[in-house]
Amino acid sequence: PPRLSCPKSSFNMRLLMCTFTDQLITIVPVAVAAALSTYLLTRYFSSQSSPESRVNMSVNKDSPKVVHSFDMEDIGNKAVYCRCWRSKKFPYCDGTHTKHNEETGDNVGPLIIKKKTP
């Protein structure tokens, strides 16, 4: 922005106005940058803990950590496990990841464990 030419003579209203304008030219960009930075950081950190960013929306919410353990002998020839956390039969996959992928653009699929055939 164009600057006013400020006289260096006696203290008068024009000198006062020029000093104020010079201060504004310095302060306003700094204040805008600080406000924008604060806004962006607040949005970033609030999105990190928001419910929308959670993977597990409904499985064992009363538990501090959801853990499932299976013995290889108990799975039979093949087991298909959910990795999208949306299955109604969790921890087993029911194909819900297909709808989840369509809605979100994600590419998650199930974990398939099967025994090797000799």
TrEMBL record:
<dbReference type="Pfam" id="PF09360">
    <property type="entry name" value="zf-CDGSH"/>
</dbReference>
<dbReference type="GO" id="GO:0006914">
    <property type="term" value="P:autophagy"/>
</dbReference>
<comment type="function">
    <text>Regulator of autophagy that contributes to antagonize becn1-mediated cellular autophagy at the endoplasmic reticulum. Participates in the interaction of bcl2 with becn1 and is required for bcl2-mediated depression of endoplasmic reticulum Ca(2+) stores during autophagy.</text>
</comment>
<keyword id="KW-0256">Endoplasmic reticulum</keyword>
<dbReference type="InterPro" id="IPR018967">
    <property type="entry name" value="FeS-contain_CDGSH-typ"/>
</dbReference>
<keyword id="KW-0479">Metal-binding</keyword>
<keyword id="KW-1000">Mitochondrion outer membrane</keyword>
<keyword id="KW-0812">Transmembrane</keyword>
<dbReference type="GO" id="GO:0046872">
    <property type="term" value="F:metal ion binding"/>
</dbReference>
<dbReference type="GO" id="GO:0051537">
    <property type="term" value="F:2 iron, 2 sulfur cluster binding"/>
</dbReference>
<keyword id="KW-0072">Autophagy</keyword>
<feature type="domain" description="Iron-binding zinc finger CDGSH type">
    <location>
        <begin position="65"/>
        <end position="103"/>
    </location>
</feature>
<comment type="similarity">
    <text>Belongs to the CISD protein family. CISD2 subfamily.</text>
</comment>
<dbReference type="InterPro" id="IPR045131">
    <property type="entry name" value="CISD1/2"/>
</dbReference>
<keyword id="KW-0496">Mitochondrion</keyword>
<dbReference type="InterPro" id="IPR042216">
    <property type="entry name" value="MitoNEET_CISD"/>
</dbReference>
<protein>
    <submittedName>
        <fullName>CDGSH iron-sulfur domain-containing protein 1-like</fullName>
    </submittedName>
</protein>
<keyword id="KW-0472">Membrane</keyword>
<keyword id="KW-1133">Transmembrane helix</keyword>
<feature type="transmembrane region" description="Helical">
    <location>
        <begin position="20"/>
        <end position="41"/>
    </location>
</feature>
<keyword id="KW-0408">Iron</keyword>
<keyword id="KW-0001">2Fe-2S</keyword>
<dbReference type="GO" id="GO:0005789">
    <property type="term" value="C:endoplasmic reticulum membrane"/>
</dbReference>
<keyword id="KW-0411">Iron-sulfur</keyword>
<comment type="subunit">
    <text>Homodimer.</text>
</comment>
<dbReference type="GO" id="GO:0010506">
    <property type="term" value="P:regulation of autophagy"/>
</dbReference>
<dbReference type="GO" id="GO:0005741">
    <property type="term" value="C:mitochondrial outer membrane"/>
</dbReference>
